[in-house]
Each structure stands twice: as structure tokens, then as C-alpha cells.
Amino acid sequence: MAALRFAAPALLRWWQRRETEQALEWLSDRDLADIGVARHEIGELARSLEPIDALPAKRRAR
């Protein structure tokens, strides 16, 4: 059970990074330019973002 406690956050970060990269890859070069991102920067940008907490605030407070 302890291994899951440490593996779950890493898995969540990987999943969120992957989802971010895929979403940005679908955008056209023009759309990327509108948000100030070059296509070659997508991977670095996805890695630099803070992970989003998957639990709602009410459940975290318990």
C-alpha cells in the first residue's frame, strides 16, 4: 500500500503531462502562436507546468 502512495502522484504527473502534450499537439501552428508557444516548445512547456490536484478541495480536507 505504501508503494501505491508514492507511485500514484508520479503516475498522475505523467498522465497530466501526456494529456497536455497531446492537447497542444492538436493545435495548429497559428493557434500555438496565438498563445505564445512554438511547436518545438510543447514538451518543455508540459514538463514545466505544475500538476493539477485530482482531488476536490472538500475531499482533501478530510
Class based on secondary structure composition and strand pairing? mainly alpha
Q: What is the string of helix and strand elements?
A: HHHH
Number of DSSP-assigned strands: 0
Secondary structure tally, helices: 4
Largest pleated sheet: none
Sum up the structure in keywords:
single chain; 62 residues; mainly alpha; 4 helices; 0% strand; elongated
What does this entry look like structurally?
The protein has 62 residues and is mainly α. Helices cover 68% and strands 0% of the residues. It is built from 4 helices and no strands. Helix 1 (2-26) packs antiparallel against helix 3.
List strands and helices in order, with pairings.
Blueprint: H1 2-26, H2 29-34, H3 42-48, H4 57-60
Helix pairs in contact: 1-3
Question: Could you write a compact summary of the structure shown?
Answer:
With 62 residues, the chain is mainly α.
